[in-house]
Amino acid sequence: MMIRYLIREMLLQEKTLADITHGRVPGPGVDTDDSEGGGLKYGDKVTTDYRRKIKKSWNRFSDHAFFQDPKKMQVVHFLGFFSGGDSLTDYFPEGKVTPGKIPGIHVPNRNELSCYGYIPPTDPKNFISFATGPYFTFKKYRVTLVSTIDAATERLSKATPADIERMKGSGLAKRPSTLTRDDELPIDEEGTVNYNIDEVVIDNWIVDTCYGPKHEAEYAAELGLKYEVLW
Known about the structure:
The protein has helices spanning about 1-10, 20, 45-60, 65, 90, 160-165, 215-225, and strands at about 75-80, 115-120, 135-145, 195-210, 225-230. The protein is of the alpha+beta class.
């Protein structure tokens, strides 16, 4: 912890990852199609290694004391915002969950999830104006990436059986696309000024409350999920 503190003291003037790395570009063999293996889909080893390197750098240099603190940055996930699957059954399929042991409700879910970040935090009910479906707030999670733009991370729905098998031990990962620039990755509070936090990736998450329509409340109760009806 002391080493991390000293590093942060040395980097107080830095705002984004680019201030440290001075930028980087994909090398030979890296897929730069952000709708395919360089972005929304899981790709080949060379491409994945490059994406993993960006994410590893962010984790090394970012101010985790700030980003991991829910009193400083609020994390919210809007169900089906990109996939269109905005029902609780899309996240917790009927007949395929074990009561009392549901990942994301009773135990940490290791599949990484894309969220929005809000600074400063606000009343969760305020997000109804942005929601097209239900949304989650969390009581437990770990932030693994923060981007001021949509970082085009892999979509879990596009994972193949081979991808799922390969990552079954750690959960499905979400990494920035190969076209993500380091100056789009803030590493401290100062780097978030005047920006919306368009993508915050979290893992080991447990939902605190689901907010949404009345027709989802009954299934939420079956799941043992805290639910607030907003419309």
